[in-house]
Write a structure and sequence with these properties.
single chain, alpha/beta, TIM Barrel, 6-stranded parallel beta sheet, 3-stranded parallel beta sheet, 11 helices, 9 strands, globular
């Protein structure tokens, strides 16, 4: 590896991987799109590994193989699993809580696991039936603000081909008022907004506590109604919010792929080509997420 790196967006692959990676019977077009995606990135077929301890050790080995300072796991199929993961290798692993914020006990659950050692909160917007700006969710935001944690919220299309494209929480602008009312919560919008570039840029412009992450293959670029590229995404966010609010991630998960170095390589190249300095690239790859997590774990 050529720089300090914290991968801020990794999914611990202890879940219904058969569904995620297309092992269940799906529409032929959906299957062809998934096959095309794996072929384009030269990814192998995923393995189904049910032993949490085996996966923990595989990911621990990845941190040394790719010289990763830390890996931030954002989901692990349950908060108890996440606690086990981060407690096994606290020198390398950081974990976020992940549960539905509309659950009656969501705020209490978040506080419980933050006290136990988790360091952030991950939400899948299009999986939450209640609008994220509903005041019923404010107890969750109050806990997040009091513990000074980052809150990572997926917006935009979700699930790859055949996934979700329309939902009350599809646009990141749904949290505009929340971000204004809870200015000490650092919200992170992954995948450059995942198709909602205009909305995410506007949200970032209006709310200085909103960051973006760069994670994933960002294949949604291919079906935008205007020409877009990874370089253009980096340039537009760099021009709008500067390097201080751009955070590197890969969206890595399953094996034998492990850490998606091909995503890293593409992103690093894009940052160099738009003229970012070494110090600015270091901010994106390491320093920004380091500073957000510093009070919690680092």
């Amino acid at each position: 590896m050529i720089a300090r790196v914290i991968d801020s967006h990794v999914h611990f692959p202890l879940s219904d991987l058969q569904s995620v990676m297309g092992k269940r019977k799906v529409h032929p077009w959906v299957e062809s799109e998934r096959t095309k995606w794996r072929k384009a990135w030269q990814f192998p077929e995923p393995q189904i590994i049910g032993d949490i301890d085996e996966i923990i050790e595989k990911w621990y080995e990845e941190t040394f193989k790719h010289d990763l300072s830390k890996v931030v796991f954002v989901t692990a199929n349950g908060n108890e699993n996440m606690l086990k993961i981060v407690r096994t290798h606290p020198d390398k692993f950081v974990g976020y809580a992940h549960h539905d914020p509309s659950k009656p006990d969501a705020a209490d659950e978040l506080e419980k696991y933050l006290k136990a050692g988790l360091s952030g909160y991950k939400i899948l917007g299009p999986k939450v039936s209640v609008p994220l700006n509903d005041r019923k969710l404010y107890p969750v935001w109050e806990v997040a603000q009091s513990y000074n944690i980052p809150v990572l919220i997926h917006f935009g299309i979700m699930g790859g081909a055949g996934g979700i494209a329309n939902h009350v929480n599809i646009s990141p602008l749904i949290i505009h008022d929340v971000a204004k009312e809870f200015p000490r919560i650092n919200f992170i919008i992954p995948h450059f907004g995942c198709g909602y570039v205009f909305e995410t840029l506007n949200l970032c412009w209006a709310c200085p506590n909103v960051f973006i992450d760069t994670s994933g293959s960002n294949q949604w670029i291919r079906w935008m109604p205007y020409e877009l590229s990874l370089e253009k995404l980096f340039r537009k966010y760099y021009e709008t919010i500067g390097p201080e609010r751009i955070i590197f991630g890969t969206d890595s998960s399953w094996f034998p792929r492990g850490f998606s170095k091909s995503y890293f390589d593409e992103q690093y190249k894009a940052m160099v080509y738009i003229g970012m300095s070494d110090d600015e690239i270091d901010r994106v790859l390491y320093k920004n997420i380091y500073e957000l997590l510093e009070e919690r774990v680092i």
